[in-house]
Amino acid sequence: MLKHIFALSTLFISIFASDMLSTEFFEKTEESASIKKWRDSNFGLQPHHVNYILPYGRREGNYISYDIPAEKYINVEAELQVSLKMNVLNNLFNFHEKYYLSYSHKAFWQIYVDSAPFRETNYNPEAFVVFPIADSSSIFQLRSLTLAYSHLSNGQGNTENAIYPAGVVNPGSKSRSINSLFAKIGMQHGNLFTDFTLWTPFAGNDLSDNPDLMDYMGYGELKFNYFLGENMFTLSGRYNIATGNGAVEATYSHPLIDDVYLYAKIYSGYGESLIDYNNYITKFSIGFSFSR
Is 173 in the active site? Predict the structure, then answer.
């Protein structure tokens, strides 16, 4: 276990390592500009969703293993998320809109068991456009309209028809994916920011790997972001009226040093990850975030 904790600590420390480099050590040559850009530039990349490392996350009950042979998962694990976007085009239709491409990568890491396997990884590329709205007449002032295409997958192949050795039961397909279109309205009232999102599976979308996914994920989300001094609180919820399934997530962040925040979250409901979309999970996690 100690070697896994050391590995996670090394990953955390490495995030700051590049900041210790300085252009003072580079000679002023024709390559200096390229070296400085390589060291200092973000190459147009911006944070999208929250970027975080949560070394400790505990849930009620244990995780189900879909592996052959079965991994012995425990109810304590680490969680990582990297989420970036790039502005690729602006004001195409003279609405001052901005066009983006984004990619989010979320991993659930069983770092406290032997071999420290990644229990589940979700991949989420998106393309979206944000239309700004200047509204000062209402209590909740409209700020933006976002229209997007999203692909969400766990990157697994369909193993439903795979042949296993005699005596080994086929656990079924581990593949989970959905293509969707969504629209999001952003609103503001003082220090309170509210996002209301609706989504639907994209026409022709193949949900054969998870035909009841929407029964658990629902078709929309309401999220509140509230700032109190340097602290940020969020509360979000999803709900399917027809099935009564959904989820609630609450987070808290507080700045520690530049671009590093104490980050804690509580999740309760369905859809924490794609592999467990139909399993009810209540989980507390704590660690660090590098964006908000």
Answer: no
